[in-house]
């Protein structure tokens, strides 16, 4: 009985604390038409302290969405346009000799911001990618002999273009795992595109208002951690991830030869965090199986390795996730 009361109180508290989600969505919808999933995914990353990788064709508002989110929050924002000639020092910073002081001083790079937009991350060579990914994982940067903690919140939002392969450096599978979510963006609907054209031809392009501070985000993250997750939901999450490793244990013998490697414990952790953040966005104080299913594709699609046989048969990680969701028993 006491648990029921606690959940009721928690639900009321989270409904109150999550009111700003609607405000952010309203501000982003002024600029971004459609792309509901994209906006939700960016909010999940923001609320659960996870980095987001956006994949989509050029012109689908990837950069605009990230830019708009940064504008709704009073926080530091930097954009790094990744190119093949970029050096790690261009991202994290370097030591510069001052003739006046006769000593080396640290010049901080664009990574020292709350929001870092890594545009076309697959255009930079491996050294630059690993410098960025290390900063994402460790939340700190070493320049010379000095180590600097990165400001909180620190969120990397990277974009990559799936169509160009020439002159690009695909992110290694082990590195992609550092991203909490990989979101694939599709074309807008016909009615949405008419509105997009209309908006871009208008005299004044809409601008979002600043409605939050970094302190508000850090406080909201603490509240998200309080979202209740039942043991049955925890087991459901672990079952889904285990099904990516041992599909035959879940009656999916046909997938055994399609998967070269499954999700690591990081997949289970991120699936739990994302489900809690999704429940928070939906103004709920507890996680339900639908929350897990809603975020499952974005959390797992870059964490399942495909065999040559799967590629030959045109089976994607999304197909595998769909089969697993259909097979694993819902609590």
- What structural class results from the helix and strand content? alpha/beta
> What proportion of the residues form beta strands (DSSP E)?
15-25%
**Poorly predicted ranges:** none
- Write the CATH architecture name of the largest domain: 3-Layer(aba) Sandwich
Q: How many distinct helices?
A: 14
CATH superfamily of the largest domain: P-loop containing nucleotide triphosphate hydrolases
Number of β-strand runs: 13
Q: Give the ordered list of helices and strands.
A: HHHEHEEHEEEHEEEHEHEHHEHHEHH
Largest sheet: 5 strands, parallel
CATH topology label of the largest domain: Rossmann fold
Estimate nothing, just give the exact number of structural domains: 2
Task: Kindly describe this structure.
With 331 residues, the protein is of the alpha/beta class. It has two domains: 195 residues, P-loop containing nucleotide triphosphate hydrolases (Rossmann fold, 3-Layer(aba) Sandwich); 100 residues, Magnesium chelatase subunit I, C-Terminal domain (Helicase, Ruva Protein, domain 3, Orthogonal Bundle), CATH 1.10.8. The chain is built from 14 helices and 13 strands. Strand 7 and strand 8 form a beta hairpin. Helix 10 packs across helix 11 and helix 12 packs antiparallel against helix 14. It is globular.
């Amino acid at each position: 009985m006491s648990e029921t009361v606690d959940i009721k109180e928690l639900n009321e508290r989270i409904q109150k604390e999550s009111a700003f989600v609607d405000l952010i969505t309203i501000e982003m919808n002024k600029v971004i038409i459609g792309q509901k999933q994209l906006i939700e995914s960016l909010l999940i990353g923001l609320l659960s302290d996870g980095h987001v990788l956006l994949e989509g064709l050029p012109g689908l508002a990837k950069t605009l969405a990230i830019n708009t989110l940064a504008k709704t929050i009073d926080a530091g924002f930097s954009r790094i346009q990744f190119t093949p000639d970029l050096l790690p020092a261009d991202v994290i910073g370097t030591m510069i000799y001052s003739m006046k002081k006769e000593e080396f001083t640290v010049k901080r790079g664009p990574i020292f911001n709350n929001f870092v937009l890594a545009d076309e991350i697959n255009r930079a060579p491996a050294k630059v990618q690993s410098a960025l990914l290390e900063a994402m994982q460790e939340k700190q940067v070493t320049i010379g002999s000095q180590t600097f903690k990165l400001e909180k919140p620190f969120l990397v939002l990277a974009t990559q273009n799936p169509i160009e392969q020439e002159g690009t450096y695909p992110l290694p599978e082990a590195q992609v795992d550092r991203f909490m979510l990989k979101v694939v963006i599709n074309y807008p609907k016909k009615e949405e595109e008419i509105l997009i054209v209309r908006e871009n031809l208008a005299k004044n392009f809409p601008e979002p208002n600043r409605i939050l501070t970094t302190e508000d985000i850090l406080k909201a993250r603490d509240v998200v951690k309080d979202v209740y997750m039942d043991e049955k939901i925890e087991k459901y999450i672990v079952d889904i991830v285990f099904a990516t490793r041992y599909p035959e244990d879940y009656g999916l013998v046909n997938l055994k030869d399609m998967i070269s490697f499954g999700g690591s414990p990081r997949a289970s952790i991120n699936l739990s965090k994302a489900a809690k953040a999704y429940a928070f966005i939906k103004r709920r104080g507890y996680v339900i199986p639908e929350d897990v299913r809603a975020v499952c594709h974005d959390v797992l699609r870059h964490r399942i390795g495909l065999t040559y046989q799967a590629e030959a048969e045109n089976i994607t990680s999304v197909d595998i996730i769909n089969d697993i969701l259909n097979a694993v028993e819902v609590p």
